[in-house]
Structure formats: structure tokens, C-alpha cells
Automatic annotation (TrEMBL):
Protein name: Beta/gamma crystallin 'Greek key' domain-containing protein
Organism this protein belongs to: Marinicauda algicola
Tree of life domain: Bacteria
Transmembrane segments: none
Signal peptide start and end residues: 1-29
SMART domains linked: XTALbg
Pfam families in alphabetical order: Crystall
UniProt keyword annotations, A-Z: Repeat, Signal
Entry similarity comment: Belongs to the beta/gamma-crystallin family.
Chain ranges of the Beta/gamma crystallin 'Greek key' domain: 40-80, 81-121
Amino acid sequence: MNASHAERTLTVLRPALVASLLLSPSALAQSETQHHRDSGAIVLYEHVNYEGRSVRIDGEAPDLRWIDFNDLTSSMRVEGGRWEVCLEPDYRGSCHVLDEDLPNMSEWAFNDRITSVRPVSFRGPDREAGITLYSGFDYSGRALTVIDPVDNLSRMSFNDTARSIELHAGVWTVCVDDDYRGGCRTIDRSVSDLRRFRLDQRITSVRPGRLDEPAPPPQRPPHHQPGYPGTGGLEGGVAGPNTVFFAVPEVNGYPLAACLFESGYRCGQEAADAACAEAGLRRAIHFSTEHAGGQPLWYLADARPARGRDGLTDLLCAQ
């Protein structure tokens, strides 16, 4: 077998499995079968379409750096159960719960960014004030778990998607517009059907705390934040093996406009490709736009800032 395509397995011994070592061979086989039926496993792949190096996980993996697989996953196979994947060690940061295969994560914000993985059954009170948003009623469908404020769920590919909310602890405020604006409501218990609050598929930003408590400042990358420096003026990227992700690409401290010219000429894909080229990268394979609310934006072709309408966000560039 080619070493680059070898699959490794990370197994966690639970007390029940340790005890099973004292059983007879037939009882041990039955115990192992029951264990895999109950918890399943997930296989992470380095490239899309289940290519490249892979690792099979059938228990908790709080830090993928331990097995040299941090920020590498571009496709996943689920061999049973529901699995939580998170962007930070110890299941912190933004998390996503899934129970189906993902053959191509290249246009998802979690691509090449997963750091910890565990079965959903391991989730517990350590989530503190976290919530899980579900795409279906009664806590079904795709799920996204967050423990920190998120000023725009588009960054997590979950904008206007939630139909039910599981509250783990504390209280949260959910809003229909970004930056915790628009119609907002405080959630102090799990909600199986958001239609009762007229929030079905309308939630765009979420934060811990009550509606009358001060909202955190918008999550914007600081000027010259650590990350991928690029070879041009584009700032604030996070490098993966084959891509670089810019949550809010900036030049000279200004968010990039979604058009090359202030006049509104050459927008969208062309502007995104030019932004990647500014960082010495090949092309944009994914991007979103976000209303700027009249704040100054940097126009690449004009090489200057000006008040604009839409800025680039979630820019994913191929190296």
C-alpha cells in the first residue's frame, strides 16, 4: 500500500472495553461488535473525494496535532453515529455535528481547519453556555454548535438555516441580521420549532447573554493579524495544505470591496480572483459578499479606499 494513502486508526479505550479484556474470546467479540454498532467511527481524508492520507477515529480526539492531522481534512466518511468536528482543540471554537459523508469540503469554512473530533455522545456540560443550531425541526438535520459569539453565520455556512435550537446552558440572544441587529430574541431554553418565535430559517447572528446586555464588537480580523502574509498586500489569511482562507480579506487595514472599481465595474468572481492574486495565490474557489453599510472598502483596481456597498468575505484561495 502506498504510504501516502495509508489509513491510520485512533482508538480510545473506554472502561467498558478495558473490562472486556477479561471476557472470553466469544464474549469479547460480541462486546467489540456492540461497541462499533453503538458509537461508529469517522474517517478524515486529506483531500476531497476521500483521497490522500486518512485517519480513522472511533473515540475522542481532542487535538489532531497529536496524530499529525491538524487542519488537513478535506473530506470525511461517517461509519456510524453522529460526530462533532471543531475548529479548536478540546472541542472549542465553532463546531459542526454531522452524521453523513462529506466528499468535498473545499467550499466549506471548515475545510482544512478541523482540530478536534468526538462522538456526539461525548458532548456534555463542558460546553458551558454553548448552543447547537439544527437545520430541521426537533433537533434534526445538519447541526452547528457554537460557544462564542458569531456575528454572521454565513461564515459557518449556516445563515438563515436554523429551524430548532438546543441550549446547553445559560442564555443566548439570536438575531435575524448580522452584527446582532434586526429582530432579536433571548433564548433561555431549547426550542424544537423556531416557527413559534417567527425565527424559522431567519437567524444570522448569535451571542451569549440576554438581549439587554451589551453586544460584543463585530468580529473583524485585526490589522496585520498572525496568519498567511501573502506576497502582496492582502492580510489576515489562514493557510491550509492547498488553500488559504481569508474570513474578511483586508488591504492596508480596509476590508476588500466586492468590485475592482468604485464605479461598480468588474465585481464578484473577477474581484475575488484579483484578491487571491494580490496575495500571490492562484484563484478564488469560494467567496461570499457582505453588505458593508457604507464603511470604507479597499478597491484593488483604484488602489484606494472609498465608501462602498458590498465587501468580500469567506475568501478561499487555491495555492
